[in-house]
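Task: sequence design from structure.
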């Protein structure tokens, strides 16, 4: 992203943001992160490997120290009950803009440093930095003066580190762009050739209608035509596996009983677009960089959607790293 900088620790960070409010606290709306409900995969996943957030800043008033904290929704509501604070309702990185909602009150809060409910926190003079790994629950970011006084005047930078998603995504975007350009040309000529050439007579040792196999052609996997449970040509069924992402992947994986080529694409569609959908639903609601990363996931999903449909129609087992290998092993 043009407006972000990757620091030495691998975080993609915003430019310095100036925040000055006369209330007691600056709070982001709660991010409801439900990453485990309804999912029993039989293995444990460290959700901190998905994304780590960093908030770094300092007070612009030498007489105040900056407090940065992450808190659960219920604990924070109790702490700020009757206290005047400003809630960030909308945040745009580029062009930069922040919309606030002021919550009036007359209660003076206790110093945040004396509270024990914080999930994670830091405070002090000079530049303060807080890193927080993704975890389930409803969380808010809180920025205050360390003594709890009114008048918050700070400079902050926000960062996010997504170890696997950004690295893999950038590579796939580059590769997908090349594949999309060449694939569009190839599919055009493939359709023309299919319309003009007469059907070939069966060769000796040809596969039966229920069989499908893979052959190497120029280092790429190519599927031989075979019968499908739906009556569609395998390349057409393979394309349709990706049409509505993991939804059509599930449909064809259930319907298709015989053709391994179609089952491969159905399972790869479930894995790839299932993971991207899950990542988008987890990261998207998180304030600040969650919205930017969510947009990135949307662009990545669209590119993959086009490339995978084209490759499937061309009769190729175009494999996404890890997902394609796993799908191929499962279908045999």
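Answer:
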């Amino acid at each position: 992203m043009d407006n972000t900088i990757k620091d030495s620790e691998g975080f993609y960070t915003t430019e310095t943001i100036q925040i000055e409010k006369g209330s007691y606290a600056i709070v982001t709306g709660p991010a409801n992160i439900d990453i485990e409900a309804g999912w029993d995969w039989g293995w444990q996943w460290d959700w901190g490997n998905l994304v780590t957030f960093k908030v770094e800043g300092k007070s612009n008033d030498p007489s105040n120290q900056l407090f940065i904290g992450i808190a659960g929704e219920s604990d924070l509501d109790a702490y700020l009950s009757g206290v005047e604070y400003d809630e960030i309702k909308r945040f745009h990185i580029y062009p930069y803009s922040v919309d606030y909602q002021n919550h009036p009150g007359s209660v003076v809060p206790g110093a945040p440093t004396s509270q024990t409910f914080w999930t994670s926190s830091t405070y002090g003079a000079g530049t303060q930095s807080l890193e927080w790994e993704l975890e389930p629950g409803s969380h808010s970011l809180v920025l205050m003066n360390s003594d709890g006084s009114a008048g918050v005047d700070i400079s902050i930078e926000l960062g996010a580190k997504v170890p696997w998603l950004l690295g893999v995504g950038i590579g796939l975007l580059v590769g997908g762009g090349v594949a999309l350009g060449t694939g569009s040309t190839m599919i055009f000529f493939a359709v023309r050739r299919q319309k003009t050439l007469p059907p070939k007579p069966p060769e000796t040792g040809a596969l039966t209608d229920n069989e499908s196999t893979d052959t190497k052609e120029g280092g790429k996997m190519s599927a031989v035509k075979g019968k499908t449970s739906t009556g569609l040509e395998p390349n057409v069924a393979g394309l349709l596996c990706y049409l509505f992402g993991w939804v059509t992947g599930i449909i064809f994986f259930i319907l298709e009983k015989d053709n391994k080529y179609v089952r491969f694409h159905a399972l790869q569609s479930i894995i790839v677009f299932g993971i991207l959908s899950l990542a988008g639903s987890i990261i998207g609601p998180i304030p600040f960089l969650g919205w930017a990363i969510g947009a990135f996931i949307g662009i990545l999903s669209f590119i993959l959607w086009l490339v995978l449909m084209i490759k499937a129609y061309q009769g190729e087992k175009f494999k996404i790293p890890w997902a394609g290998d796993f799908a191929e092993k499962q279908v045999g």
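Helices lie at 73-79, 165-196, 234-240, 246-255, 260-283, 289-313, 323-331.
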